[in-house]
Please model this.
Amino acid sequence: MSQPTSEPTRETALEGDSAAYGITRVRDPLSWRAEWGRQWGRRRTLVAFGLLLALPVILVIAFAFGDDDEGRSGGAATRIFDLAQSGAANFSLVVVFLASELLLVLIAALFCGDAVPSEASWSSLRYLLIAPVRRARLLTSKAVIGLGSTVLATVLLPTWALLVGGLAYGWDPLTNPLGENLTWGQFLPRLALAGAYIFVTLLPIAAIAFWLGTRSDAPLAAVGGAVLISILANILDQLDALDPYRNALPGHYNRAWQDALAIEPQWTDMIHGTLWSLVWAVAFTMLAYRRFRKSDILS
Model:
């Protein structure tokens, strides 16, 4: 008795047609490796990392031409800047302090907010979905590479600042404005922890930019919208009348990473900041998937 022949599947038929015409079919057109290559093939990625690498060098030049006597009577932030030239550890701390306020926020919004609308603006998004690839698979690939690029930027900045600061000012350990010291064995793990916390606080803005990117074909709208929301949240955070509700705003605990570098670190604000950041990030990521799954792709 002969065995029943199985009916050819759609994938088998496509492979047969491709072989008949001598066409090589890509099995995984949206692999993370391919998406990573697209990420680094864009000029804005190279510009963003170029600015990140230029910041410590610009600061060294600025300190070289600046007046050492200016700002001596300022507050705590001024005293931190006064110690920037005392060694690599202090210099890297100043660089991270400056970049975490805006530059890293902009980079997170750029990498995560530009991912989907850039494909739409090139009229290639609908062709990616014809692959065929599930929309969730496409969105996940974009999100993973966007967040991976943000992680790379967050790690690269203090590492490069340490190297530049060491070459410019020596390799002295951290000295805080009170004259207390952290050895390199204490400083480096805490700097890594501070960097991890900074990345977590960037997740809400990255998720908001990602969500806006699923709602617009214009990369500038997604990136700019997320940055504007970040600025608005920072403005509202200055209003004492919003207590205690302002504690839930994205960015309220953004500076809590400095607690990890104290002689006696405090973890309360970092824990609260981590929890609120994850709440915002998960909420807007879910909205992005919901929006993208139901939207009509015309570009």
Observations:
- The radius of gyration is 24 Å.
- The chain is about 65% helix and 0% strand.
- Residues 35 and 41 are 10 Å apart (CA to CA).
- Residues 1-27, 70-75 have pLDDT under 50 and may be disordered.
